[in-house]
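User: Could you check the structure of this?
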Amino acid sequence: RAESRLSWSNGAEWVSLLEAGDRGRLRSSLRYALTAIGFSRWHESQTLLLEESNARTAAEKVSRRVIGFKPEDDKKRWEQKRKKLSTHLARGRKWSRLVRAFDFGILFCNPW
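Assistant: Sure, the predicted structure tokens are below.
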């Protein structure tokens, strides 16, 4: 966690991991949950690096860095990418809150 705060990245690795995990989500929901948690924590650390006065503005800048600027010719595709990223981020934040409250055991379905 401390290492991610020190390095600035564009998030391309996270996006490819999330897309791969989302495709196989039905087969491996645990892997997707861990990837989404990691992505949300990375996103949070990148917003802290920006040191903006407004956290929402910083989060938007990090997301824009990941998906790029809105093109004039292909707005629909860009909007789909933005929505997907937002969904992965929201899921990761929810899983992260659950893990903090109940530990990683919450990720296992019927462990007994």
